[in-house]
Design goal:
alpha+beta; 25% strand; 2 domains; 5-stranded mixed sheet; 60s Ribosomal Protein L30, Chain: A; 340 residues; 7-stranded mixed sheet; Phosphoribosyl-aminoimidazole Synthetase, Chain A, domain 2
């Protein structure tokens, strides 16, 4: 077997690669949870007046990601903004407060220095907006055609009392998505195909949406940002991790009419289109309306919608516009284009 582009899709081929190669050698109880970020207990916390020598561990979230998007600049963002938002969102999905980032740059020979300057400036601006500090980095130059790749690692602190995990979804919970799906995927594909339209990437850090949920006192069980592999893949991962049945309402899933039309023309399914500024929250059904209102009160959650529920059983199912129910799986193959 050889590596194919499908192994980077975030779907079934990616999961198989993780399991067969990396999981085989790196297996441990932290990594095996396969969350958006690892949850670690390090040292002791002085929060709430607890002295360090009391032995109370601090819980932190740690995540790393690499960004290989083409083009480097696009409507609504660029690789500099993207790498900050992507890593910050992974920390947020564990209930953490993002604190620090490191960044590694791989520059291809021929990269325009003025372009690099714009991208780094964008990265710095987004880091400041997301409340994180870039504290370490590395730069390498390789032969190539003027491209750029960025790796970021993020550290965040998980406040006491928060327990957010893909394995925490329970029968009776409701599922809320923070807004329209497929914007980033459609934007990047439009750039690459040189198709003129008004579609803009949703690239954003979701601090405001997550903060609103916890400030409202919502008992959040699970959060996931919907990136590679789309909503369909994320929902299947939650169903597997929590050993539950997930049912989505097709009519309730928000997709902008421009993106829906674009997807229809190209034969794309918004259920598997990638995003870089959308998340789902799984909350108790009795708190769903309060959670929805909290999310809709924010800039990046204004179009939030309740899209489904958690039931006893297993698997992921979609109730279609025609009233039928069909099972859906994770993304299979390559979800073109490379969007992150």
């Amino acid at each position: 077997m050889k590596i194919t582009m499908a192994h980077g899709s975030g779907g079934k081929s990616s999961a198989q690669l993780m399991s067969d190669i990396f999981g085989k050698y790196f297996k441990n109880q932290i990594l095996d949870r396969m969350e958006d970020a690892a949850v670690l207990e390090i040292g002791a916390s002085e929060d709430a007046g607890t002295p360090k020598d009391a032995g109370t561990p601090a819980r932190i979230a740690c995540s790393t990601d690499s960004f290989v998007v083409t083009p480097l600049e696009f409507k609504g963002g660029d690789i500099g903004k993207l790498c900050v938002c992507g890593t910050v969102n992974d920390l947020l999905m564990m209930g953490a407060v993002p604190k620090y980032l490191t960044c590694g740059f791989i520059l291809e020979e021929g990269l325009d220095v003025e372009l690099l300057d714009r991208l780094v400036a964008s990265m710095a601006a987004q880091a400041a907006q997301a409340g994180v500090v870039i504290v370490a980095g590395d730069t390498k130059v390789v032969e190539g055609a003027g491209g750029l790749y960025i790796n970021t690692t993020g550290i965040g602190e998980i406040p006491a009392g928060r327990d957010v995990s893909s394995s925490n979804a329970k029968a009776g919970d409701a599922i809320i998505v923070s807004g329209n799906l497929g914007d980033h995927h459609a934007c990047i594909l439009s750039h690459r195909m040189e198709i003129e339209n008004e579609i803009v990437s949703d690239c954003a850090a979701l601090n405001d949406v997550v903060d609103a949920l916890f400030e409202k006192g919502i008992h959040v069980h699970t959060m996931r940002d919907v990136t590679r592999g789309g909503l369909g893949t994320v929902i299947n991962e939650i169903a597997d991790s929590s050993d539950v049945r997930v049912e989505l309402e097709e009519e309730a899933i928000p997709v902008h009419e421009d993106v829906r039309g674009f997807a229809d023309i190209l034969g794309l399914d918004p259920l598997y289109m990638g995003n870089e500024g959308k998340m789902i929250a799984v909350v108790p059904a009795e708190e769903a309306e309060a959670a929805l209102a909290a999310m809709q009160s924010t800039e990046h959650g204004a179009d939030a919608a309740i899209i489904g529920s958690i039931l006893e059983g297993s698997g992921a199912f979609l109730r279609t516009r025609l009233g039928a129910t069909r099972r859906f799986d994770v993304l299979y193959g390559e979800g073109l284009p490379r969007i992150c």
